[in-house]
Amino acid sequence: ESPILKRWKISFSVSKGKETIMIYLDNAATTMHKPKEVIDAVVEAMTSLGNAGRGANEASLSAARIIYDAREKLCRFFNGEDPRQIVFTSNSTESLNIAIKGLLEPGDHVITTMLEHNSVLRPLYEMEKKGVALTIIKADKRGRFSLEEMEAAIRPETKMIVCTNGSNLTGNYVDIGKVGEMAHRHDVLFVVDASQTAGVFPIDVRNMQVDVLCFTGHKGLLGPQGTGGMYVREGLAIRPLKSGGSGVQTYSKTHPREMPTALEAGTLNGHGIAGLRAGVEYIENTGLDTIRAREQELMWRFYEGVKEIPGVTVYGDFDSRERCAIVSLNIGDYDSSEVSDALLTEYGISTRPGGHCAPLMHEALGTVEQGAVRFSFAHSNTEEEVDIAINAVRELATEE
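The structure corresponding to this sequence follows.
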């Protein structure tokens, strides 16, 4: 029996109860195959942790210690100044909402790009209705935007630039160091969506001049779903999105202003954070560069295998070797959902079709109606899985 069959055998309802291979190539949505260390950490936390900051018993103190240790690890991982500047949230979407709604005010101007996920765009549209001026920098047909155009859009009332570090649709990597240098040269705040890059690409918030870094735990950081966070530059005050219980200053009518409590109302997901902490440890032990090199090796293997297949259109910028491990494509005029369904039912390959919560990027690519089929790779995938996926695309394209 092949390694794939040993690792990925599951029962699919679509195959009428038969055992079939599942090749999971939807890692840009979530990394499904977590390290054993992460799973063990969550299980142990579920059986031992109390509520951090809500008591002096050992269960509560253990939760507080694990959560603080996770802050320290993430602060070091992103080269932040102080662990107290790491705030835990439920995902990147919550982090981005806190940053965007907590920093912008009517009369401000904000700049973003067509590459963005709806977790950036929708909060910005909300703020636009409240009197914030919004400029969206266009992308070309390969999903690239111009830093020169972004700089030219800065005006006296520009408060913030918010952009992704890597497109969830094309895999195009954005050099946030260059954006950060430009933003700070103009005294503009820089907010980064690191959903697709945290845990895979090196992120140094100080050298890259990032004011707010928003990340999720369940993708490259290999943690559980429902975990995420943000790094907030020391000295930058953000209006809280929520207020409520904090475990401290109980008799105050206002929520505490001290970080990180200022942005963390309510009980934290201690069990999930324990898993996220283990995910960061796993990445440090395995090596960030090792993980990225492996993912890119698999991605390039797939790209080279499908790019010349007649009828197949691949989207994105593949001139740069540095890119997220994502390849999005279409086969002829087939709807992307049809292709994705065929990949699953006929080959057991999990992909993501449709709009990917990135409407403006689809406008730039010309794929609004058709969508695109996204293949996204993790370092746990194998060459055999990639080759099966290449063959599947070839066979479906031949049928077309």
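Residues 212 and 232 are 5 Å apart (CA to CA).
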